[in-house]
Amino acid sequence: MFMEEILLLRCLTCAWSSVRRIPQRLRSVMGKRGKTSSCSFTATWSEKPCQMEQLDRILLSGIYNVRKGKTQLHKWAERLVILCGTCLIVSSVKDSHAGKMHILPLVGGKVEEMKRRQYTLAFTSVGAQAQTYHVSFETLAECQRWHRQASTVVSMRLNMVDLSCYSLEEVPEHLFYSQDITYLNLRHNFMRSSGAGSLGSLCRFSQLKSLNLSHNRLGEFPVSLCEISTLTELNMSCNGLYHLPSQIGKLLNLQSFWLDGNFLTSLPEELGSLQQLSSLGLSFNNFCELPAICEKLTVLDKIAMAGNLLENLDLTVLNRMSHIKSVDLRLNNLKRAAADTLEGNKSVIYMDLRDNQLTCLDVSSLGSLEQLHCERNKLKELTLSGFSLRALYANNNCLTSVSVYPVPGQLTCLELAHNQLQCVPDWACEAKKLEILDMSYNLLVELPSRILSSLSLRKLTVGHNNLQSLPPLLEHIPMEVLDLQHNLLTKLPEMLFIKALNLRCLNASANSLESLPSACTGEESLSMLQLLYLTNNNLTDQCIPVLVGHPNLRILHLANNNLQAFPASKLSKLEHLEELNLSGNKLKTIPTTVANCKLLHTLIAHSNDISIFPEILHLPHIQIVDLSCNELNEILIPEALPATLQELDLTGNANLVLEHKTLDIFSHITTLKIDAKPSLTTDPALTSTFWSHGVAEMAGQRNKLCVSSLALGSFAEGMEAVYGMFDGDKNEELPRLLQCTMADVLLEEIQQSDTMFMSNTFLVSHRKLGMAGQKLGSSAVLCYIHHDMADPTSTFSLTVANVGTCQAVLCRSGKPLLLSKVFSLEQCTEEAKRIKEQKAIITEDNKVNGVTCCTRLLGCTYLHPWILPKPHVSSIPLTVQDELLLLGNKALWEHLSYMEAVSAVRHLHDPLAAAKKLCTLAQSYGCQDNVGAMVVYLNISEDNCTCEMHGLSLPGPGGFSSTTAKTATPSSSSGIASEFSSELSASEVSSEVGSTASDEHNAVGLDGSLLPRQERRCSLHPLLPSSIFQRQPSSATFSSNQSDNGLDSDDEQPVEGVMSNGSKVEVEVDIHCCKGKGLEFEPLALQYSSSAPGVEDDSGLVLIIQRQNSINSTAARGGVKEKSELQKSPSTCCLYGKKLSNGSIVPLEESLNLIEVATEAPKKKTGYFAAPSQMEPEDQFVVPPDLEEEVKVQMKQHQENRADEEQKEEPAVALTEEFDTAL
Questions:
Q1: Last residue of a domain, which of 653, 676, 699?
Q2: Are 600 and 625 contained in the same domain?
Q3: Which of 313, 785, 815, 971 is the 20 to 30 A CA-CA neighbour of 959?
Q4: What is the pLDDT of residues 1136-1193, one digit of tens each?
Q5: What are the residues facing 381 on neighbouring strands?
């Protein structure tokens, strides 16, 4: 009963507003249970109420004396009284924030003045056991105000109830207490067609006029609904209906009947008796032809049959339906639409034939047609009547000719973009009222002078054509927007800015302009130009003075031109400038007069030669500053930055060093982008020479950035990479979540050794979105560069997976290769067909249920099964011809073609500058949304190989012969580098330094015997896993460098040859993956030059310390890995300097190499091998202080023995020294 009472409270509240719900404080009662009367409408519950200001529908409130009941048995008490919506809420003043509240519904009740007590009102609810509360006020004015407001609420009549999305299975019984309900919304529930509390009980409402039962999965039409003769509106969409009952003819008052998203193939004849039916929704059903019953529905004015199975449209059928004015046949399978007779139709004024398969369309028989939509067909020819034509939309076809007769005198809008038209139709030039003309993405070679000189045309879009020149302007024109981008123009008409005084926006980007026409003939300019886009031209400094003739400029884009300087005197005159883009030029400085642009909020000047930071931090409205990829070396900033500054990008300035004081001043900036300082623990050898990346994200004119990127150039085992991009459209939560979690999920799936690891990564990431992914969604693309799991000796492969509209493009031999799939209704016919078969509602703006145009997303769980998280996965081996990989979101690829994007950046050397350039181009081409771009430069070639089998050998140091084969210990710096066994304690390895494998020493077993050396391989040609387990710790705590008092001391003498940092010995190890051919193994006795004893721990591991070769080869890589036993160590990297306790860095002259090799783990895991992994620093290889002298002696003895052994060896033939370097 409690739930029913709350539902009634919900119903009563809807009387106040049909669209606004009751406050959160009141709705929370649905999840609580407290003391309540089974017959009373008054509900009580106990919980912490919200603040009073959160009750957005509070009418009146105050603390007054209150008495409950009509009798004098109750005492007066001070209570908090609230008139909220249609209810009176009474709560304890003392426990108002933690006590219980009483709710008294007032609709249908009464409010009376008490005669026995001054300034007192009696509030009474409706019902047999109505409750009454007496409230005493202090003043007459206050009493009258409450009386007036409460009387208005009492006089209300309940007529609208919204119970949608409540998971109801039956109609609440208390709804029937009110017979005034006229509107009932039960959408998105689980209502039953029969049984107790089923839809059959709805006939008890005597005045019900509107009923919404969509999305209830009924399966069949409830016959009982036909008994509600008062119905005028009935919505039965998305219920899986296959037929309608004949009793439907009883609903004689029905005016609107919605049956979208079902499986209907026909309509009953009885439907023809509904002579008041004016709206009939039949979209997304299984009709193969127009229902004949529509001829009898004489009041019906629109046929809404989008998403059905029509293949032929006989226009003569519409002649028999003279009452039909609008026809919507979107998303059908229409292949033919023509009239079999010459009889004309004078009733149809609107027709929508979008997304069909028409190749030829002749609707000239529709003499009254005013608006025609035929986008996204395969039309080559189009013929229609121009008597009444006002708007024609025929984009995305294959049109070569468009015939309209007679000349459309009423035509105002003509859109023919993305076709194959070679000229503007003559009839379009004669249209006297044409205001908007879109002829972009065609084959135009010239523009008629009648079009450019039209006295009615206000917006002309002719971008992406082959225009080489424009006709001269002789008269003043009302043109406001002119788009000329992506043509072959070398100049603009001389009188353009003088004759087009109303011109507000001009986009002439991506042409070959070398100069600009003057904007004034005298001293004063009348130009009203506000937006000027001139990116990607051949403009020089000589065009700058012309810009002064446009004093009203707000947005100026001059990126990617040949500008070398911007005169200070000219910039100072552009006082209204708000956005300035000067990227990709040769500027050395930004004039100081930029301080005169007081309204400037965005300055983008990346990829120049600017060395001095411009004086822009004094501007009061500055928000975004991008000075990346320049030559900045210092920044002079004020003590206080403007509060409006949100983003400052200083990346790519190699000579810029920011002091701590400067960073403190920049701390309040929301987004500060600077280059990360090189870490001491970062080895350039770990930074892959096979790829490098750059990322750029720009918010555009949006208030927030909803695009995030993932870039890991060293992933998993080191020589792998992961790149991704995520676009949340209008939400920023999901892209950030995916950015933080998707790489970890991928790593987990890879370790499962599942061939479906990429698909599983997307599905697991979708699941981990949790509640955030219920109503929010995000497009995603993920690229994984790796070796073939089935063949470790193979070269690199690229696996790409994506959902939504984020795409990945590979540049191979200078040509784009699309690796992803666009999952949108407009570009993927298979997905559109699937969505239609699953009976989703596709709105006129091509969005699933009006939410998104994508058919596959991460998130948007509530739109399942229409929106799926299953990705498209493709894999391709990388070759020498692969130059770069491009990732971008929807906004990028909407404004840049694949070929243009590849051509724009393939010759650049900096991937960051390349990514910035792509985003800048997209914005200059008209993108106003969030745009993100990622550029990954690839260098996959045999030239990177450093295997021995390719014939290059590296001479060994000291007593080692250059022809001696030496064991290459696996390294984490390469893609197949050695990793540490999970059985070993992580505390053995220093977290501050790492190592790469050395090729100087032979493997030593647990018993001290020598193991044969395996062939050295690089990351391009890894060696198959061997059965020998080898381990190379990057650093171990070998000796404690602490004073007696336990504190670090730099005064103590360290062990000779051992570099210590704090309490840990840091050992630098290098890898030489050299090429050698014809090398043979020497006898084991000759492979090791000395038998000096090593330090042995309790487990029998022999630690051999030898002097490292002084030759470092950061470009060479190699090693062996055992996947089943090796685990990744974050500390496996080279140390380049000694970090003293005071923080200073000392460069290394000579370093040591620490090698510990075990052939196999003991069969019985005892002692050290049985110990669990620990992260405690105490659990490390430690040599007591009293043994340090012994260590010194052993090391000295080892060096002497090695020198003696070298002298005994016979001189070998000296080979030419060859080193594998970057050159």
A1: 676
A2: yes
A3: 971
A4: 333 333 333 333 333 333 333 333 433 333 333 333 444 444 444 555 666 777 777 7
A5: 360, 401
